[in-house]
Design a protein that fits this description.
The complex is a heterodimer of chains A (908) and B (379). With 908 residues, chain A is mostly beta strands. Chain A has 10 helices and 51 strands. In chain A, the strands form 9 sheets. Chain A has an 18-stranded antiparallel β-sheet that branches. In chain A, strands 4-5-3-2-1-31 form a 6-stranded mixed β-sheet. In chain A, a hairpin with a 1-residue loop joins β24 and β25. In chain A, α3 packs across α4, α4 packs across α6 and α5 packs across α6. The longest helix of chain A has 27 residues. The two termini of chain A are 24 Å apart. The relative contact order of chain A is 0.07. With 379 residues, chain B is mostly beta strands. Chain B has 1 helix and 33 strands. Classes of the chains: A mainly beta (908), B mainly beta (379). The interface between A and B is medium-sized, with 23 and 38 residues.
Chain lengths: 908, 379
């Protein structure tokens, strides 16, 4: 949903049209310079130029990015940007970090260059252009050409190879669409670069036309069989990663594991009397929530975990940003955490004693907020936020006084703040403001809250995050990729001064995040291991026990770095955004049959570049004889505007021809109608919306040719309230609720032939019994009453199973279903002599349906009971097969024998 | 019904035109104009000693079915021939642009065809296999004369002399065939080649992906000298008596002594060089993938001037006595003042410049994306 009214503007450069809005101008100028640099680099590396101006659409945060209309549907959290194939648009949020912004721009531009190059290669050879390499190659190439291997890439590759869930080209199908697939694809291309030469990579694209199978393209370009290439890559992976086990540990060995399933992040410790608790956020059941873990006295037992607050179901707690934001707790039991609520993020303060949210902080200009941390006495918090300009800066909020102070204000990415030493009013934080020879690295800094002087705590050629002072303030703990992946390090503080030597506390071969103290000798942290994030506890060794240390340079660094701006070179124009419409989609069809003759038509949609304004045009002709040709044109033109929070649309139509309307009768009739329609949708929140529509139509219907049966000038209005917070898996929803309330009124304002009102109430609830098993319940009533009211219908696989599809009709209808949904077969592999057939995720359901439909007088109640199988085919089609018995004769008798029904569609 | 009839006629017309005969049959005489191979000669000369005016007149535009590789048209009398990537070879009237014939095959023609003795020679790279058909077509009689199969991909430019044709395969094999398609010798160099080779006197010079320059005796096929010069050589070789010129993937332009392959000089440019360097009497003209174009002194390697353009350069420019005509992948051919690099004129295109330009009788032949061929005349 779109909360903002974006005032779009355009910067035109040599190769790009950059679209931005409001205060994002500076970030847009920086992004334009990054894009031009990337263009120059890619044209050499891929030996290709893109000759059209590439549209780049910038948003200041992920939250604004999620409001884009360029792709329909919801954009999940964690999507860093996308390239849209239809019009070649690139859509990217800045998210506060210029290095990440640069990475994403370059990544998406690789997609632009690659798709354009493949299109040109195929077009030059006059071959179909709608082909692409496999996704692992597409994303791997984008990563290979946009970034270097960083701590995160190294972490996932080490984990996948050492834990043996990824082992070569054949395993790409196992990790399809995951972050690991991106990084494994990047790793493969780096292997190709090292072994076969960087020039082979553009050659793969140039040779793409030659073979139907991509493996053959690889074989030909690299000059070896795919089996041999795979063997050598696998050997390369093992050679790189297996030796790590000699002196590095998995987290389970180097620390105590406190959680054992799901994704768990950001632990904080709270002591209440003799009881010790850890609070953390995580996703253990499909929804992100906050959990409490009670530390057992018996160290061998896995602690008990209890959910204290569920997110993603209500407007106030839309999302907890698990991968980005941490939580904190004060000594008196106030837990602070961030959630998305409406247009921006908010900070909540939860009293853990009462389990109530006591206070919520929100400012309109702070769009995205992360990682609040309490001061020692708990009266203030410091946090990172991204503002309208897209700057990621530090803020201090006084809870009692409800006052906010901005600490930094520039385009450097200041993050992970915590309050500094008690004897000075300061903040310790991580930032990419590092200057000098380690320019842009995330080092650690301290800022004095009075003088605003910023000093380095750490100056090194590595990234440092998550600083946190020990309770005694004798040392600082943080994570760093000094050792390639993120491990936990310690820096002693002597007389208020940070030592120049740091010690490595953990030597895991994968990464650790968010270390927090239980006390000066024990840490808790999040660790990534075996493709899951778990909470761990670790004793802090003394300095004498620590083997690895790093001595920092004593040179003081002065000055700061400046980002390149596009204003300094090439073509540079600033323009107002003007809508230019272009085709999104067009399809036509011509059909001939012996009864109705030849008929044909087409549909096309056009929209502006930002997809805010969309036109849908439908045109077809249903003439059965030549003389009917002119009068049998059917045309509709609809405009939908999505530019603002209120989405609206209006249109006109003219329909003329033979109709079959199952709601009315089983016979065909001739109808001509023309009129207009107005539509409106207003999202109250992510989970609720109001929809309204008005249509007016002049209709004339003939059942027997030449005799008018009904003329009507129909005005129809409806308004509805819709709710949906359901969680879906591969066959349908398994948790949450969905409901719809609709009221409508339809009347013939000219002839008084039609006059009825409509009510629909449809409620569905899904109660999860375990992770993949759910009890689903539906109760619905559909009610039309008045003159010439239309009929509802049911029957078939989607509602009243066992009964003929849409065979039960009436102006009034009710329906209820109860269904137990559960997994049946996770993986089925059938081996044939010449091929294997595999099926994944076959689910099943037992069901009980009951309902009825009638016009004036209630007739009978229908029902059915049975068992069904569900199979998701490539995530586009759910195949459904149901077996059961109908309950007949006004619910008094089961049918003899069984019904068997096969259809497609999602579970209700 | 009228509409349906028209529709039917259009379909028939489309079918007929799509099924038009694969034939080039030309009533030609011994040529006045001959531009028989990529770079006019096998040692690759892109220099035309004519003075060009600033005024350019558009003559005609023609289309081929497939797109072009970075090759060029070749010319026999007043007929131009061009190969394209959907596997066809076309002939057009040089003055009118009228299509005179087409040889239709399945595969891709990467090289400029070779024209000699009323015959057109071209390698056809096949799809789904590592196979090239080397086709010899007699355009006087309108018949295929020879087709031989080579188990390799010939995507490189051809060379020829008075009695043979030389082909360079992607995997580094060099073939010498007589004009009657008898294999005379075959030499394995054992490294992939994407460099355009050149032949002068009795020697063939070629570069490879290992950055080696290899000198081969054209009579015996024996490798005379092999020297590691760079990391990877993908650019073409321009072979003159006093020096050979080529670029490498790191952006160096090299000048080597052809006798011993000793370095005369190397000049650094800003990025990878793919084109053949063009030379006139005094200077070398070369562009790279970054879009920088250079004029370099032939004797010293000193950069006399350089200029940056929006696109990149991977097709070879031609040089006249006073002008340069430079194909730019960013939808342009540039006409530059030779001595200063100053832009005299820009021919704007609807796609990437692909063909190296060819000048015949002050007529300029260029080609770009989607198989568009255009002719201009200097007034």
């Amino acid at each position: 949903m779109q909360y903002e009214d974006f005032d779009w503007k355009v910067i035109q450069t040599d190769h790009f049209n950059i679209y931005y809005y409001g205060d994002v101008e500076k970030i847009a100028e920086i992004g334009a310079a990054i894009a031009e640099d990337a263009y120059e680099e890619l044209k050499v590396k891929l030996n290709h130029v893109v000759t059209r101006k590439i549209p780049l659409i910038f948003y200041n945060t992920s939250l604004h990015f999620q409001q884009t209309n360029i792709t329909p549907g919801l954009i999940p959290e964690g999507v860093g940007g996308f390239f849209e194939f239809l019009k070649g648009r690139v859509v990217i949020p800045s998210n506060g970090s210029l290095s990440e912004f640069r990475h994403v721009i370059r990544h998406e531009l690789v997609h632009v260059f690659m798709t354009n190059k493949i299109f040109r290669v195929m077009r030059d050879h006059r071959l179909p252009t709608d082909v692409m390499p496999p996704l692992w190659f597409v994303e791997g190439l984008a990563e290979y050409l946009s970034t270097e291997v960083d701590a995160q890439a190294e972490m996932v590759m080490r984990d996948a190879v050492i834990n043996n869930y990824f082992n070569g080209i054949k395993d790409f199908s196992k990790i399809y669409g995951t972050y690991i697939m991106y990084k494994a694809g990047q790793n493969f291309l780096e292997f190709v670069d090292r072994k076969y030469g960087a020039d082979k990579i553009p050659q793969i694209l140039e040779n793409f036309w030659m073979f139907t199978k991509f493996d053959d393209v690889l074989e030909h370009t690299l000059g070896q069989s795919i089996e041999q290439i795979d063997l050598e890559w696998k050997y390369d992976l093992k050679k790189n990663y297996y030796p790590l086990l000699a002196n590095k540990k998995p987290q389970e060995v180097g620390a105590k594991k406190l959680t054992n399933f799901g994704f768990n992040f950001s632990p904080v410790h709270f002591q209440k009397g003799d009881s010790s608790f850890i609070y953390f956020n995580g996703n253990r059941d499909g929804y992100s929530s906050i959990f409490k873990l009670t530390i057992n006295k018996n160290e061998n037992d896995l602690p008990e975990v209890k959910r204290i607050l569920q997110g993603e179901k209500t407007d106030e707690l839309e999302s907890f940003h698990l991968f980005q934001s941490s939580i904190d707790i004060s000594k008196n039991g106030l837990l602070t955490f961030v959630s998305k609520s409406g247009a921006t993020d908010v900070i909540h303060f939860l009293n853990v004693h009462s389990n109530m949210i006591e206070k919520t902080f929100q400012r309109d200009n702070l769009i995205s907020i992360t990682s609040p941390k309490f001061s020692k006495n708990g009266d203030k918090i410091v946090f990172q936020a991204i503002d309208n300009k897209g700057y990621s800066d530090l803020f201090v909020y006084s809870i009692e006084a409800d006052s906010l102070i901005r600490i930094t204000n520039d385009y450097y990415d200041d993050r992970d703040p915590c309050f500094g030493l008690s004897n000075e009013e300061s903040i310790i934080f991580s930032s990419d403001r590092t200057a000098g020879k380690y320019k842009g690295k995330y080092n650690l800094f301290t800022i004095n809250l009075n003088s605003r002087e910023i000093r380095y705590i750490i100056y090194a050629n590595a990234n440092f995050y998550n600083p946190i002072l020990s309770p005694s303030e004798k040392f600082l703990v943080f994570t760093s990729d000094l050792d390639t992946v993120r491990n936990i390090w310690k820096q002693n503080i002597f007389n208020g001064r940070f030592d120049k030597k740091i010690y490595q506390l953990s030597e895991f071969y994968t990464s650790a995040f968010d270390p927090r103290f239980i006390n000066d000798s024990t840490l808790i942290f999040t660790g990534f291991q075996n493709f899951s994030f778990q909470i761990y506890q670790k004793k802090i060794p003394t300095d004498f026990e620590l083997e690895k240390s790093f001595q920092m340079e004593t040179n003081s660094v002065k000055g700061k770095w400046f980002a390149d701006l596009i204003t300094e070179r090439g073509e540079f124009k600033k323009l107002e955004y003007e809508k230019e419409y272009s085709l999104d989609y067009a399809q036509s069809v011509v059909a001939t049959d012996p009864v109705y003759g030849t008929r044909g038509g087409g549909i096309l949609t056009i929209s502006d570049l930002l997809a805010n304004d969309q036109y849908y045009i439908l045109l077809y002709n249903t003439a059965e004889v030549q003389s009917d040709f002119l009068k049998s044109f059917n045309i509709s033109l609809t405009r939908i505007n999505l530019a603002k929070r209120v989405n609206y649309g209006y249109g006109i139509f003219h329909f003329n021809g033979r109709r079959y309307d199952i709601r009315e009768s089983d016979t065909y009739f001739y109808e001509k109608s023309y009129g207009g329609v107005f539509l409106m949708s207003y999202p109250l929140s992510k989970f609720h919306r109001i929809e309204a529509s008005t249509s007016i139509a002049d209709t004339e219907r003939e059942v027997v040719e030449g005799i008018s049966e009904r003329k009507a000038f129909i005005l129809s209005n409806s308004i509805s309230l819709v709710h949906d917070n359901s969680l879906w898996i591969n066959s349908g929803p398994v948790d949450g609720t969905r409901w719809l309330l609709l009221m409508g009124y339809t009347t013939d304002i000219k002839y008084s032939n039609v006059n009825y009102y409509s009510l629909i109430a449809d409620y569905r609830q899904y109660i999860r019994l375990d992770l993949r098993t759910a009890l689903a319940f539906r109760a619905a009533i559909f009610y039309n009453d008045g003159k010439d009211a239309r009929r509802y219908f049911m029957g078939g696989s989607w509602d009243l199973r066992g009964w003929n599809r849409w065979s039960i009709r009436g102006e009034k209808m009710w329906l209820s279903s109860l269904e137990l949904r559960f997994p049946l077969v996770d993986e089925l592999l059938i081996k044939f002599p010449i091929l294997n057939l595999g099926f994944n995720g076959i689910r099943a359901a037992t069901f009980f349906d009951v309902g009825s439909a009638w016009d004036k007088k209630y007739k009978t109640t229908y029902g059915s009971v049975g068992f069904g199988l569900r199979f998701n085919l490539w995530n586009v089609l759910i195949l459904r097969y149901d077996i059961g018995k109908k309950i007949e004769k006004d619910f008094t008798k089961l049918q003899p024998g069984l019904f068997y029904q096969f259809f497609f569609g999602w579970d209700f | 019904m009228g509409f349906l009839k028209k529709f039917f006629y259009i379909i028939i017309l489309l079918i007929v035109s799509a099924c038009s005969a694969s034939l080039i049959k030309l009533n030609v005489k011994l040529p006045e104009n001959l531009h028989p191979v990529f770079g006019t000669t096998s040692h690759r000369s892109f220099y035309y000693p004519v003075t060009l005016s600033d005024s350019l007149k558009f003559l005609w535009r023609a289309n081929t079915y497939g797109g072009f590789n970075n090759s060029s048209v070749v010319v026999y009398d007043s007929i131009i021939f061009v190969g394209e990537l959907s596997g066809r070879v076309y002939s057009f009237n040089m003055n009118t642009g009228k299509q005179l014939g087409v040889i239709k095959t399945k595969g891709a023609v990467y090289s400029s065809p070779l024209l000699t003795n009323f015959r057109v020679y071209f390698p056809l790279v096949k799809k789904e296999k590592k196979l090239t058909e080397f086709i010899v077509y007699d355009f006087y009689s309108g018949k295929e004369v020879y087709i031989i199969e080579i188990e390799d991909r010939i995507v490189n430019q051809l060379m020829y002399d008075e009695d043979a044709v030389y082909l360079t395969a992607e995997d580094g094999t060099i073939y010498k065939y007589s004009f009657e398609m008898k294999l005379i010798w075959r030499t394995e160099t054992n490294r992939n080649i994407s460099c355009v080779p050149a032949l002068l006197g009795n020697e063939i010079i070629i570069g490879n992906e290992a950055g080696e320059i290899i000198k081969i005796d054209k009579t015996s096929g024996k490798i005379l000298l092999r020297k590691k010069i760079s990391s990877n050589i993908s650019s073409g070789i321009t072979f003159e008596k006093e020096a050979i010129y080529f670029g490498d993937d790191e952006g160096f332009l090299f000048s080597l002594n052809p006798k011993n392959l000793e370095l005369i000089f190397k000049t650094k440019t800003s990025s990878k060089i793919l084109m053949n360097p063009s030379t006139d009497l005094d200077n070398i003209y070369v562009g790279n993938l970054r879009g920088d174009f250079y004029c370099i002194e032939k004797l010293s390697g000193k950069i006399l001037w350089s200029k940056n353009f929006k696109g990149s350069f991977n097709s070879t420019p031609v040089i006249s006595s006073n002008k340069l005509i430079v194909p730019d992948s960013f939808k342009a051919y540039w006409i530059l003042e030779k001595t200063t690099g100053e832009v005299v004129k820009k021919i704007e295109l609807e796609g990437r410049a692909k063909l190296s330009p060819v000048l015949i009788d002050k007529k300029l032949f260029i080609g770009y994306d989607d198989g568009v061929l255009e002719a201009y005349e200097f007034q």
